[in-house]
Structures are given as C-alpha cells and as structure tokens.
Task: structure prediction
Amino acid sequence: MLSWTIFLPAIGAGLCLFAPKGQVKRIALATTLATFVLSLFLLPTFLGGVENPEATFGTRYGTMHFVERATWITAESFTIEYFVGVDGLSFPLLILTTLVSFLACWASWNFEHWKINKGIRTYFILFLLLETGMLGVFAALDFFLFYVFWEVMLLPMYFLIGVWGGPRKEYAAIKFFLFTLAGSVLMLVALVAMYFQSAAAIGAAMTQETLRSGAQSAGIASGYVLGKFLTGGTFDLIEMATNDAIVQHFASAGTTFLGIKFAPIMFIFLFIGFAIKLPSFPFHTWLPDAHVEAPTPISMILAGVLLKMGGYGFLRLCYPIFPTAGEFWAFTLATVGVISILYGALCAMAQTDFKKLVAYSSVSHMGYVLLGVAIMSAEGFQGAMFQMLAHGISSPMCFFLVGVVYDRAHHRDLNRFGGLWLTMPKYGTMATIGFFASLGLPGLCGFIGEAWVLIGTFRAGARWDWAYPMAVLAAAGVILTAGYILWTIKRVYLGHPHEDPDHDMPEATAREMGILAPFAVLCIVMGVFPSQTVFNYCNGTLNHILAMMGTG
Amino acid sequence: MEPVLAKLLAASLITPFLTFWILVLWGPKIGKPRAGWVGLIGGMGVPLALSAVVFATWFFTGPQQRAELTAAAQHSQVFWAQLGSFDVTFGVKLDSLTVAMHFMVCFIAFWIFFFSIGYMSGHADCVHHQSKYWRFFAYLALFAFSMLGLVISPSLLFLFIFWELVGLCSYLLIGFYFETDYAPPAAMKAFITNRVGDFGFIIGLGIVFTFLGTLDLEGAAAAFKTQLATSTGLFAPQVTVPIFGWTFSGMTLATLMGVGLFCGAMGKSAQFPLHVWLPDAMAGPTPVSALIHAATMVAAGVYLVARVFRLLTPDAQMFIAVIGCITLTFMALIAIVQTDIKKCLAYSTLSQLGYMIFGMGVGAWTAALFHLITHAFFKAMLFLGSGQVIEGCHHVQDMRRMGGLRTKMPVTCWTFFVGVLAIAGFGIPGLHLGHWKFGLGGFFSKDEILAVAYDRAYNWGRFGGHSDGHAEARAKGEARRAYTEEPAGGGARRAESDAGGRGVRLAAFAGEGAEDVQSPAAREGDVHGAEGGGHHASAKDGVASGIRALPKWMFWFAILTAYVTPFYMFRAWWLTFMGKPRDHHVHEHAHESKMMTTPLVVLAVGTLVSSYFLFRPMLSHAAEAAADAPLVVAVDGEAREPAAALLSLDHTPERDPHKKLVGLVGFAFLIGFAVSWAIYRNGLDAASRIKAIPPFNLLHTLLERKYYFDELYDFLWVRGCRAVAAVCAFIDTWVIDLVYNLLSGVTERIAAFSGRVLDAQGVDGFVNGISETANDLAEVLRKPQTGGIRKYVLWSVGLVTAAIAALIAAMRVNGG
Result:
C-alpha cells in the first residue's frame, strides 16, 4: 500500500506520456487526488494511537508500519534495500505531501494561460515524478534509498523552475540545484562514512561475540578480519539508531573521520545538507530566488513540502543516529535558528516583491523548526514538528494568494497594490486567514509551533543558560513577524483600490476558492485542535527519539 | 458537585462563535437589518441570558458552596494539547471575578450591539458595491467569543490565546473603514503595539512554565506559594540564572516574570509607554470604541494583572504602580486639549485605565477591579453618547463645531452628563442611608484606589511595611512591633506563633529581596523563625511585610489627576451640548434616534445604581483568593490581617483615609465643573485667550502633540526597524549571495580549465542523458544544459571540499 502511494504519481506520469495532450492535466489531477486518497489509508493506524499508543508507536524508536522491505542491490558486501515504512515522524508529512501536491496540481490548472505555456505534458510528468520523489524521501528507511529519492526529487524541481519560471529562471534553477547538490554531496560523504563505520561496529560486535563464545586465537583473528573487512555495514536508518553496537561505535570518541570525532562531524555534514533544504541562515539565499522565479504551484510545493525535508532530515537522521552530537552542536544550531528567525523576518520586511516577502517569511518560520530541534526537548520537538506542518499549510496558501493577484495584475510590486479586499472580498477574507496564520495568531495553525518552541526554549534554560537569551530573542521575532505581515496586508488588501484600467481585479474564481478553502479550513482546524490534527500522530515517535537522547 | 454554572459559562462561547461563522459565510445573504439582529441575539443575547442566570445563582450562593463550585470547575477541565509532557487543559475558571466580569461584559456588550444596529444603519452601507454591514456584526460576534473566552480562561496559555484574538478583533474593527487612509495604519499600529506587549507576555509565560512548571493559573499560584515557603524552585537560594556571566537570582527572575506578564497588560490596557495606539484606535466605528476600546478589551490588561496578582513580587508591583501613575497623570493632561470628542474620551480612558493599573500596583485589588466595572458602565455610555452625537451631526467629531446640542439631543445630553458626573467622582460624602452611600460609580471606586494609595504612602509604617528595604534587622524588629502595636488588626492572637515567621519573610524579601535571599542574615533568620515559630513560616504570614511604602509623589499625582478629570470631562460636555451652536449647519441637522438613546438610558441607570450592590460584594469575595498573594499586599476579605485591613473599605474610624480624601478630592468635581463653566460656557474664546499666554502656549503645543511620542516612535521603531531591515536585505544580496556567486565564478573558471579532463571521465554519459531530456524540451530550454551540469558538478565538488576542509579546521580548533 505504501509503495503504491509512493509510485502512483510515477505511474500517472507514465500515463501522461501516452495520453492525448488535452487529457494530461486531468490525468495528473486525478493521480494526485488518488494519491491523496490512497495516503489516507495510513490514517486509521495512527488514529488508533490515541487509544493504544503502544500499538501505534511501540515501546521504542523504530516501530514502523506498512513496512516493505526487499533487497534491492547487492554487490559484494553491499546490501542496499528497498525499505520503506511509516511512523509518527513521516506519517503527517506524507499526508501533507499528497495534499499539497494535489492542491498545487489543481493550481496548475490554468497552465494554458501561463506566460510559458508550452510543454504541458512534460510539466505534469515532472510534477508527478517530483511527487514520487518527495513521498519516497519521507518513506525511505534505507539511507541509500533515501539518498536516491532525495536526488530524484531534485531534478524535476530543477526543470520545473528552470523551464516554466520567470525572467531569471536559469539563475534561480541553477542556484537551487547547486545548493541542494552541495548539501547532498555532504550527505553522500556521510552516507559512505556511516556505512563503513557501521560495518566496523557490526564487525567488532561479531568479534566480541566470537570472544565470548570462547573461540581459539585463530578464530579471533579471523573474526576480526571478518569484522573489519568482510562484514557488510548497513544503510538501515532504524538499525543505525537502535543497534547498540552501532550507536556506541558512532558515539565513541575513538571513532573518527579524518581525525575528527565521528558523531559531531557526521551530524554536521548531515545537518548542513538539511539546513540548506530548510533553509536556514546562511544557506537560505537560493530560496528567495527560486520562489520568485518558480511558477505558483511549484512555489507551493517548494514551500509546502520541500522545505520540510530539512526538518524531517534532522529528526530522522541527525538526532536518532547521533544523539550525543546534538548536545555538542545545540548552541550553534540554536543560534543559527534564532538568526534565521530574526534575519528572515527583517529581510522580509525590506522586500517590495510580494513573493519574495513570503519566501523570506519561510526562512523566518523555519528558523523556529531549527530552534525547536536544537533544544532537544519534548516541547521543542513537538513545536518543530507542528511548525513544519503548519507552515506546510500556511505558506503554500500564501504563495497561492500571491499567485492569484499575480495572475491578474502581472506584477508583484507591493507598493502598486491596494484595496484588494474591496474589489475581491472573498479572496480578501482568505488572504486574511492565510496571512494571520503565517503571523502566528492563536487559533490559527501558525501559533502552536511558535509557542511550543518558545516555551520549550525557555525551559531548555534549565540545561543551558544560553537558552534564556535565545528564547527572548526568538520571542522578539513575533513583533517583527507582525510588523511585516500587517504592513503587507495594509499595502495590498487595505486602503483604496489602485485605479489601474489595464488590470481590473475580478473576484477569485471557484477553482481558486476551491484551492484556498481547504488550506483555510486546515489553518483554523489545526490551530484549534492541535492534538487531533498533529500531536496525536507524531508525539509517540518524538518521545521515543527523545528517550534515546535521554531528554524526554 | 455538578459544574453546571461552569458549563453555562462555557456555553456562552458557543453562540457568538457560531454567529460569527454564520455571518461570515452568509452575511451578505442575510441582509442589512437582519444581520444586525442575528449578531445581537446570537452574538450577545444568548450569552447575556446565560450570564444572567450564572450571576444570579452565584449571587445567592454561599461562600462554602462557591468554593466547592470553583473547585469542581477547576477539576472538570478537558485536555487540549500536550506541551512537552505537560497537559494543557481548557475549562472554566469559575470564581466571583469571572462571574462579575462575564456579566459586566455581556451586559454592556449587549447594549452596545443594540446601539450598533442603529448606529450602523446609516453607516458603511455600500463601499464599492458591497455592504460591509454584516461584517461589522461578524467581527463583533467574534469579539464577543474572544472576550468571553478571555474572561473564563483558567490557564495563562488560554488567556494568551484569547488575548491575541481580542487583539485581532480590535485590529479588524479599528480597520473597519479599511478603504480610508486613516483606518489601516491605526489598526496596524494597535496590533503591533500590542505585540510588543505580548513579547513581554511570552517571556513571562516562559518563566512561569519553566519555573512553576504549569500554565494553569491556580497551579502557578500554588506553585509560587509553595516554592516561596519552601525556598525551592524559583526561590531556591541557589537558583541563579547565569547568562553569559551575568548572574541574577531567582527573586529577580520572579520580578521579571511579573513585569513580563504585566507588559502584556501594558499593551492591551495601553499603558505608558505603549499607550500610543489607543487614541488612534478611535478610527474604528464609535460602538467599537465604546465596547472594545473603553469598556472591555482595554480593561483586559487590568484583568490580567488581577489574575496573576498572586505571582507578583513587591518590585514588580512597584513597577506596575509607577507605570499606572505615569499613565493616569500624563494622559489626563492631554485630554484637556483634545478637540475631537472621541479623542478626548480616549485619553480619558487611558487615564482611567492608568488609575486601575495604579490601583493594582498599590495593592488595591478590589478597588481597581471595581473601578474597571464602574468605568466600563459610564465610559461605554459616554462613548455611545459621543456616537449618538457623531451620528446625529453627520460625522462631525470636532467639538469646536458643536455646541448647543442639548436642545436637539436632550437624552444624549443628560445621560452624557450623568457619565461626566460619574467619572468626575460625583458624590456627597457623608450622606448615606445605611449602606446606601450617595454617589455615582467613580466616586466609590476611584476613592477606594486613592484611599489605598494614601495608606500606602502615609500610613505604611504602622502596618508592618517599612521604607528602608535594606535594613534587615530593623525590618524584622519593625515587623514584630507592627504586629503587637496593632491590636485593631486582630492578628495578635496569632502573633506569638507567627511573629518569627513574619520576621523571616520580612527579612528575606525586604526591598530588593534578591540579594537578601542569599544573605547569611536571612538564612539565619530562617532558622530562628523555624525555631521560634515552631513551624515553618507560611507564605501568608508574610503579607505586606516586604513591601515598601509608596513614594508620596505618586499619591499626589493621582490626586492632581482627580482634579484634572472633572475639568476635561465637563469641558467636553460644555463644548458639545451647552452654549450656543457654533456651526449652524451641524446644529440644524442634528437629531437623535430611539435605537441609540435606549442603550444610553439603560447604561445611565446602570451607572446611577453604580453597580455598587451587584458587583462590589462579588469583588470583595473574589479578593479572598487574591489575598492569598504571598508577596504583595492583598485586599479586603483579609481584614483581620493588619496589612490587609489597611486596604479594606472597612477602616476603623480613627484611621479612615476616606476622611482625609473627602477633604482632598471630595469636591474636585465641583471645582472641575466651576472652572470649565468659567472657561467654556460661552464657547472657545476664553480658552483661546488663555492658550495664547506664554507658559500655556508651550504647554498647549506639548500636549497637543502628545509629548511627541508618535514622532519619537516613528523615528525610533518604524524607521529604525525599516533601516535595519534594509541593511539585512542588503547583506543578503551583496554579502552572502556575493560570496556564493564568487564561489560559483571561481569554479566556473576551473571548470573551463579542466572541462576536457572531466568530460572524458564519464560525466558525458550523464550529461548526454540529461541533454536528451533537454532536447525534448528544446522549444523552451534556451541555454544548453550540458555546460551547466558540468559546472554544477565541479562547483559542488569544490564547495564541498572547501566546506569539509573548513569544518575540519573548525573542529580541530574546538578540540572536537
């Protein structure tokens, strides 16, 4: 079932190859909708988590559902598996992905009216491949498979920006590609290093086993040889986190990489890879360019799903596998998180391009995710997870809101708008919900994540005294956020309508409202019922990760 | 016990919420007059009915049962979400304060909704072919939901949530005329200023959760008390918070917590220096000014302070008093020079809110809340009166163009007069019939605040307080003396066992108790106290002992303002209703309508009975809970305690501060009336002559420009923030990105150089694969991708190599 969900979009892409041109977008929309519906089959398992947490989340990290496991590539000692599964960490993000993909696909419905309206078939094929890549990343539990999906997702995105983007699309696409690639190369280094070290760990464990079973000296020697050179390592992300031999070996001060302690360096390699994706300061500069140039639906995907891979990566790879390194880097990460929050908000304030403003607001919002994971506490992890999902709803909504006015006005200059609430009242109401959700208004989805992270950061002060000033600084972010968002609302939606005879601003169409409405509903529902929408499904797994770090 | 009352209060949130959505979704279809009635009945009618039932039941419920009901409500909260391992619950805080506030909000809001139907019928009909009428009532319903939620919230987190929601409603309603130039900036200013306060609120919340381990109001208060009594947690002597070498103790942290929470109140209740948004908020329709920006929402700050009163430290409380004192004085002065009738009332509101906050700061818990309620009645009425005037004069708000409206609007004129008398503190001292004292709302409530302030400033030494916080030994002795010297307090029977404990608290928390906590003397005292008292000193015994006397200037500022208030209020009344019409066009068309005068009369009657019998006993009862405050002065209901007796209304005759106050301000309203009559009875001529006299002209300009706060903030915050933002954007493009682009350029050079080598190495295969795809896209792909991909690969290899090298170097340095 899980594999079907992952590859359904790819199958849809295959269908698109043969379908008549006029049918392509229908097929694509149907595929994304079907994928969304299919992904809902994961839901009952996690709904059960409320009554019976043990059954859903198990007693320790690594309890997976819908596991599908098969040997994929074997060569000598290498075994790469097709290993996918779902737990509380990936489940909400999978649903988010299928939902945002569906809505973004629907947002592409007016493809014929785009400035670059050629290659509709290719567009939707790439779009669907992208969805498969994204779902794969969230479902993969084999590091190598994870890496493959990570790269699979990269290329379609590159083309989607580079072909159907705005005036500076080549620059933006290349920039996006290079940044992500740089991160994935670091990840590749970590992948290989972790593989070999896990091999060493397993080998050493085997040697110990041999010793304990009282083998002869020859046996010890051969066992050592076996352990060091012949035993395969593992790419299994769960095993790396739960196999005591590997965990201890990774954390051991004796394990090194190029003369550096293994855990911290691997942690930071992976971290940078994911921080680029998140994106956090100072790796964020690809984001505004990519967003500004990307077509609206692609921005929605980019903001709604791709950025979440960074946060997901922290929680899936960095912290469970290198729990000790988290402590080592906590200060640095939290600092970067706080800088992202404030710097992103300030940069957003200075923008005159509507879309760029929303892009920078993403930097600011994802800063909370980084801060939340960095403090390694239950509040922080819950807040980070919620913030990812909340941002996954509010920011595609904001990008779509920008797209709607862009379709009408053909520009995004904040200073040339005004009074849209008068001319487009329904749209204006939606915009109010979307932007206030982004602002972090209680009752809407943006608040919970921020509040949890901030409160958690204060509480982390008990462990690290630097957490208090961090919390205060991060809390100052709420003022800046209110500043730039309200200023935007004022400039675009309030005041007199700008009389521009060339571009009248008709009310949002039914399709546009149809896309905005689910987002708006989710903004409210998530804000009012955080447990029922998010926490119930992910807290169990998050607590297991925290337990491994000893900071539950 | 079945928590029916709590359920009724919770149910009062439902209909406003549903009404909001009904109006949002089908507002335009419901149509013009009907949307208003839907808003009135669903938004406030049903909650008022429920509230009345609760109020009446509660009123006739005995103290014992009340306590049981409170406990039952506390225990029947429902789970909302997990915060870490803490369960955030939602429920109803059922106590006298909630019941009183809830009823006050419902009652006043109901009549304001009613008024709005009349007021909005002529307003905002069609802008750009759309009626905004339904919107107004949708927002009002949302406000009703949020405000009632705020009142019943049992936890600080929910208080904060509804706090922000009322802020949203305020934003939406100030910006109701969003097609204008003036409303959107005012709305934005209100929200952002409030957010500045909320920044402090969040810090306070963070400290509460970190150290007290809960967000529940009751739980936090209990934890605070326990930690104080047992010297653990926040008050553990060793709990110091070193931040980058800067160390401060738990006591300072507790003060910061209180100040942080109070910052939220400063935002919402528009206290100096966050007062700037409230006058601008008058951009909203007048009923909104009455409801949100006079009677209910702005008072939420006072309500918050009342709720967290038990978490305050003496320093935090002193901070509150200072802020309140500054606000009440300086805002009242501005009101003198206002010519816009709503602005005049707005500054008056600021000043009165200052009184309430000041009251909280001096420990006049009951009095401050009582003033909140009486003020809500008369200020709502005054605002509605001004709304009737504005509506009747076709949107003229300038009092200079009014005058003589009494003939055209008699009901408005005389209800307004009642409001003016109430705010001026009209009453006939000494004249009373049993418990029925003769006076209007403000006479009682303001007087109570002043009485407490007086005792804090002048009688303090007699009640266990002391002005020198550093002399521990002296303080200790004084406390003992205070206890034995004050038999009237009735505490003597406990003095023997408690004196030691009192001394300990006194020593430990005198003045800047922060240092004292750790001083050996204090710890020694603790030992003695434990021995002498035979039991561990309970926190309650320490009531008032650590609190310093009120600086006398603060009391005198409050007295001065009691003279300024009647003056500016009567001035407004003279200018609007009396004298000769100054603008005949305005005067001729002036009229009043039934729909709007009815609420005026209802609220005037409410002001007349001064809510003395309904609300005052409830608040006294509520004060019992607040009197549990371990560190700050508590209120009546604790009359047996000397320090608390000080703050009670039931002063013993020989030291009744009210008697002093009668002499000081008892006839202030007469003086205000007389002076304003002298100057304004014939219009503005006399005033403009006075204005021209040298010292007054400068003063007038200063006041007219509101002490230049807007200009200062605009320069400091708005421009400052934008400048910093511009710098950040510049850095982003010209520093960070430049580095990346340079890197890219360098790699490109290397790529060009070594391209052939790599081409041969199988990159071609990859590249060709890509370029085949690219060929399919040939129509739209303009640049050849082959060169690009090669560049990327090289670029990333270069970048990664550099990054790894840098990291290794960095970690070697760190010794990792």
